[in-house]
Amino acid sequence: MLVAIVSSRSAALLTLFGALVSPAFAVPVEPMVATPDGLRPQANIHAIPIGGSISHIGSDVHILAADGTVTHIARNAGTRSATAALAKKTKREASGWVAWTGWLNTGLSPVSTFTSTWSVPPVPVTYNSQLLYLFNSFFSYDAKAIIQPVLQYGVSPAGGAQGHWAVASWYVTATSGFHSSLVNVSVGQVLNGSLSLLAQNGSTYDYSSEFVGIPGTLLVVNNGPLLPGVSKTLETYGATRKSDYPTGTTVFSNTDLKLESGAAPGFVWNITNDAADGHTAQVNVAGATNGEVTIVY
Ligand SMILES: *[C@@H]1O[C@H](CO)[C@@H](O)[C@H](O)[C@H]1NC(C)=O
Ligand SMILES: *[C@@H]1O[C@H](CO)[C@@H](O)[C@H](O)[C@H]1NC(C)=O
Ligand SMILES: *[C@@H]1O[C@H](CO)[C@@H](O)[C@H](O)[C@H]1NC(C)=O
Ligand SMILES: *[C@@H]1O[C@H](CO)[C@@H](O)[C@H](O)[C@H]1NC(C)=O
């Protein structure tokens, strides 16, 4: 699992604070884990019960069981400082998005559906405790939230194991991560990652994420912020050699994106590649209907 990284300045402050309080006790550093939207405090990761949902209520996020009972209230404000400081200091590791295509919808009609299919890649030849994520997403560019059907390799905060690929839907806010059940998938299995806008009420939005046909992966978020960004992303942590990645490429195919108005928007994918990592995202078929993007490892 990921080890917490602390900037030298905050480390110095923590040391000073530790010395003032008591030289005998180290100040505990909040353990951080790598969600599919960067590092969040381990204590703020929550599994959503099957059939349950998430609801933004004021500045909190409620977790509801299938029968509507509130099972947990996650504070969604006031704890971001550690995360933000960390993200600034170690931006690349903190976000982990090494190759992705994105589009920001600035039009009046929100994106209502976004589906894409891809095959579970071969298992990487070497294991270095690396964590790989592949997903499509709806997200806000101001880092408020993201919803994403995620294929993972390795051990994530949702579980998993060396040598195994698994899927779950995630909803990650500035402070917390929420995930569906994690379900094992096999090499070569074709996945259909599906995102939908379920409803809009004033300035709040209900979204869902699931892998079509894989029970347990549905995640529903109610009363959340508008998520006007869309992406297809390779995100990685701890992979240091080429053999820590699958061989070949992953092709996101059958990409269909529709607006609430029913229209397929005209847009150009914005490509972001982290050159230092050597991975690239390439657009084979542009556009919102039957589009195709290849991730090269
Ligand atoms: C998923 O695979 C892992 C690793 O083999 C295994 O430990 C776990 O039991 C599997 N989970 C299910 C639900 O089959
Ligand atoms: C993926 O699932 C959606 C339903 O969410 C469906 O409309 C679409 O046809 C599926 N794509 C493929 C290629 O099967
Ligand atoms: C829509 O939002 C308003 C105010 O935020 C709330 O009073 C109302 O119950 C909501 N309607 C639905 C259908 O959720
Ligand atoms: C487009 O990609 C560039 C880097 O390639 C990035 O700096 C910029 O923020 C991206 N814009 C959007 C809207 O994603």
TrEMBL record:
<keyword id="KW-0732">Signal</keyword>
<feature type="signal peptide">
    <location>
        <begin position="1"/>
        <end position="26"/>
    </location>
</feature>
<protein>
    <submittedName>
        <fullName>Uncharacterized protein</fullName>
    </submittedName>
</protein>
